[in-house]
Design goal:
With 206 residues, the chain is of the alpha+beta class. The protein has six helices and six strands. The protein has a six-stranded antiparallel beta sheet, covered by helices on one side. Helix 5 packs across helix 6.
Length: 206
């Protein structure tokens, strides 16, 4: 009876060890790896996902930022399940040997999972490059535009319409008298006396 119990314990322990071996070790979801390339580009690796994992590389080089993304299922590799941290560190070591972390890296191959199925390989799916401060410039322009629009709205003061009031002329009758006086002066006086005659006639026509 004791031998049977001992055998049962051995089987249970063996199954527990096998389960731990097949189960991938947990990795912090916010884990990142920083490294420099052969040409001293400052790079960062970020990892996400569970079964199908996504790896993103971002690098800064001489005022430019370039990036690339990879996907794969490294969990099908037994060595990865045993120690995923070593797997990612080996990838970073291989990238350090390159002058450009995203060029000539369509597939990330390391010695740790050479015999694993092809689906375990991390394959590049996207890549890009842009000026390092482009995003900051766009954000700054957007904030400035918003600020200017806000100031414009606050500084607008609507003025009441200005009504133009024109008083009727009070000299209409006088002007007619002056015109008539000048006409009579031209008809009955010498040219040199037109002004004097016009004045006298204007007084009498009053």
């Amino acid at each position: 009876m004791k031998s049977f119990a001992l055998l049962f314990l051995v089987v249970i322990c063996g199954m527990g060890v096998l389960g731990q071996e097949l189960k991938p070790k947990k990795r912090s979801s916010d884990e990142e790896i920083n490294f420099r390339t052969k040409t001293k580009d400052l790079c960062r690796i970020s990892i996400s996902g569970d079964q199908e994992m996504k790896l993103r590389i971002e690098c800064k080089s001489q005022g430019m930022t370039y990036w690339c993304e990879f996907t794969g299922k490294p969990s099908v590799c037994r060595a990865f399940r045993n120690n995923p941290k070593i797997y990612w560190n080996q990838i970073a070591m291989e990238l350090r040997k390159l002058p450009h972390a995203c060029e000539s890296t369509e597939v990330l191959k390391i010695t740790m999972c050479q015999k694993a199925p092809t689906e375990a390989l991390m394959k590049q799916i996207a890549a890009g490059m842009e000026p390092e401060d482009l995003a900051n410039q766009d954000e700054s322009v957007q904030k400035t535009s918003t600020s200017v629009r806000g100031e414009g709205k606050s500084s607008v003061i609507r003025k009441p319409p200005i009504l133009s009031l024109t008083k009727p002329s009070q000299h209409g009758q006088g002007s007619e008298n002056e015109t008539e006086a000048m006409r009579l002066a031209r008809e009955h006086c010498w040219e040199s006396l037109h002004g004097f005659c016009s004045y006298i006639i204007g007084i009498f026509r009053g």
